[in-house]
Design brief:
Domain HTH tetR-type: 8-68
Oligomer: single chain
Organism: Streptomyces melanogenes
Number of strands: 0
DNA-binding region: 31-50
Protein name: TetR family transcriptional regulator
Keywords: DNA-binding, Transcription, Transcription regulation
């Protein structure tokens, strides 16, 4: 392994260790010594890659944002079936939150008042939900009287709430939980003649890829 490869491996190990510590302890109480010990490297090696705890948190946030952008990709105009895309993406996000500590730590940092970083995963998610609902409205898929901003507030707040609850009780990340949520919400959110084609538990291809 080359020196450059070893350096990159150490950097990635530090980012993962930092995410694990931030996820359990929060930003302010976490120490660089705890992170370096978890990563199995010296404090000197940590400071070679990251000049401060804030720089390390920025790296965690950047990695988490890249993952979120892969899950919640910008909506393509005219793609149709926006409501099913919304349902499927919440299921995919829940699964990844339960499985990916860096993504989970990124969401945690976004709501941590002691960290002032450049990435805000929660705001990206809120904006994404609003964009997809705007697409659903343009498709005529929303029920009469449903305002995009109202629906965005309910869906974003509820899914972010599931993310917070899932930190101590992983069952909140389960497909059953999100299926129940959509089963309750879709009859109010979607136009009546579109309900039959919507699947609150996720599309068949998604269901096959996610555990119960």
């Amino acid at each position: 392994m080359s020196k450059q490869q070893r350096a990159e491996r150490t950097r990635q190990t530090l980012i993962l260790a930092a995410a694990e510590v931030f996820d359990t302890d929060g930003f302010a109480p976490s120490s660089l010594t705890t992170i370096s010990t978890r990563a199995g490297v010296s404090n000197g090696a940590l400071h070679f890659h990251f000049v401060s705890k804030n720089a390390l948190a920025e790296a965690v946030g950047d990695h988490a944002m890249a993952s979120l952008r892969q899950i919640a990709r910008p909506r393509e105009a005219g793609q149709g079936r926006s409501l099913q895309l919304l349902v499927d993406t919440t299921h995919a996000l829940a699964f990844r939150l339960g499985d990916d500590v860096i993504l989970r730590a990124g969401f945690g940092l976004s709501s941590d008042a002691t960290w002032k970083g450049s990435t805000d995963l929660r705001q990206y998610w809120v904006d994404w939900v609003g964009d997809v609902l705007t697409g659903a409205a343009a498709e005529g898929a929303l029920a009469e009287g449903v305002a995009v901003e109202d629906a965005k507030a309910v869906i974003a707040a509820t899914t972010v709430g599931f993310e917070a609850m899932g930190r101590s009780q992983p069952r909140w990340f389960s497909r059953q939980m999100f299926g129940k949520f959509w089963g309750l919400l879709l009859p109010r959110l979607a136009r009546a003649d579109a309900l039959g084609s919507l699947k609150p538990d996720g599309s068949p291809g998604l269901v096959a890829a996610l555990p119960l």
